[in-house]
Amino acid sequence: MTDVTGPEGKRRYPLRWHVMDALEGAAGVLWPRRMAPFTGWLLLAPALLLVAVLVLGMVQIAESSLHTLDRSTFLPSEDYTLENYRTVADSATYLKVIWRSLYGSFLTVVFTLILAFPYSYILVRTNSAFTRKALLVALFLPFFIGQVVRAYGWLIILGNAGLVNDALELIGVERQRLLFSFPTVVFGLVQYMLPFAVLLLAPALTAIPREVETAAGSLGANWARVLWHVVLPMARPGLIGATLVVSTLSLTDFAMPAMLGGGSQDFIANAIYDQFFRTADQGLGSALALLLVAIGSLLVGAIFAAFGAGTLAMGGRE
Amino acid sequence: MTNLKGSVSRRTILRAGAMTGGAAMLGTLPATRLFAQEPEKPSEIIVRAWGGEWVEALKKGVSDPFTEMTGIAVRHDLTEDNEIQPKVWAAVAQNRIPPIHINWDTTTNATKSALRGVTEDLSDLSNLAETTDLAKPVGLEGYPIVNTYGYVYVLAYRPEAFPDGPPTSWKDLLDPKFKGRIALYNDGIGFHFPAQVAGGGSLEGIPDDMGPCWDFVEQMKAQEPLLGEDPDFTAWFQNDEIDAACTISTNALAAKRNGVPIEWTVPVEGCKFDTDGLWIPKGLPENELYWAKQYINFAITAQAQQTWLDGLGLPGVVPGLTPPEGLAGDPSYPTEPEDFEHLIRISSAVQVENESEWFSKFKEIMQG
Q1: Which residues of chain A neighbour B224 with C-beta distances below 8 Å?
Q2: Which domains, and CATH codes, for chain B?
Q3: CATH says A91-313 is which class?
Q4: Which of B115, B352, B356 sits opposite A281 (nearest CB)?
């Protein structure tokens, strides 16, 4: 600390002390000491405000979902009705789309975790700095490329005149239609979700002491038994966190089904888009949007109830 | 229906503009001061447009000459027509200034906006007197929209996939060799009406008896068609993903101009003919409304139409235009009454009322 006495015997303090004093004084005026018990709420205020805005939007969407479209004026009807929900319930198309979204989300979670687990494990356990850096670069590079660009990349690679078909032709295999199907959509989603899953799994695996695995091995367990009885159970929080994030993002995805599905593999988000922007039926679009929120919430709630929040609990009690 | 209230002062201004400077507007006078009492010029006007060949043609034929004559820059907003629609509707409902000055739109979509009452009346455009009946929207009062050209949803095909000659019927696409090699619009637009005929029905059955249409769409579904938007068709032809498509002739022409070997035809069952137009959303400041109207007024001059529609390869709404090279007598470029014999034109009113249902039914079949 600087403690300098001036020529006239007065103490001179560093500038930053004056700045801090001024800031403290201002804070005392804006948020007096007697308000200290509410400081936690003050810090929460931005988050609460954000949630409030979202809730307000949801309320508006809910209100909109209770009006049908009057096609003589293209304005919402005055009357409140559940007709839009009945339309969804009676439509084989929407039920099929909802089922496809759920099934696609499930498959994406399964395949993503199968790929992300070994990736994360090697990332955490490797002794080679080069390998770790290479894995990190490969993990983060896709973040710099948007989802749409990545989907276009697959269109180029998997297209009839794409790299994969060129390679197949070289080995005498006839060109195949690799794009525009349900498996292609799931493939695109898995590639998109992989970094998210690795980022959620890696901290959980880091928290498993290497010595625990060594101890299991020294007691006679082979690597498969160590994996099954030690690593996987201890990595559970990471697996749950990754499942939550990947399942909700996949369930609500728009771009991959739109671009890799060839128009016939819509998810719920695509059906919502169609109603808002293709047929101008905001009521039906709102009903579908609320259903998507409800399905997503139920899914997350069920996982929470069954397995806890995993790494998303941030160290809190599950 | 069109709401004409509040248009008195605008009309006054417009008439004054038309009398004093309308003729000059269409000529080649320099930009700075065309009108003696012209309203203040905005720095730019925003025109929503489709991208690619579409916006290039508009820029060359209408926007650039307009800027040259008036000094007002024209910015093209490439937001999809379906996506700008709710934004404009919301802006008008909330008494905000709309995000665009002019919407280049399908007549069916524009009719929805007119029915909702968000369009300005354009009846007082001086150049409307020089246009054909095609410019007038059917079933609407006044001119909430000005149609600017017509277009045909042709059957575009790759000649090498049809070695025995061009397809003569939409049913030719049911040949198993085309499985996975056909493309349609993802809402079926352009395909519903020829499908109605190909399915054994009649046009009189639209909209009450569309069973034959859906039967034929079911048969087409078995062919596993790709479903997309305008840019997809060009890309799919270029990337050898498809052999045939029901698409607007402009997209086929664009692909051909880009070197893709592609032809198009109107099969015996016919093809859908429709129009696009320009309209102005309500809520613009008076001076900006005036200049937006002048833009549309210019877009329906022979000079603008000739260049704009040369780029699109489409027939305009002004008599005496010269067809682009190679399109004279082409089925996608109808100009004479006999050219329309194999084209199917259904009124906007019927389309607007039933389009959502048709889209849903098409989706139901294709998503099934």
Answers
A1: 264
A2: 8-150+275-312 (3.40.190.10), 151-273+332-367 (3.40.190.10)
A3: mainly alpha
A4: B356
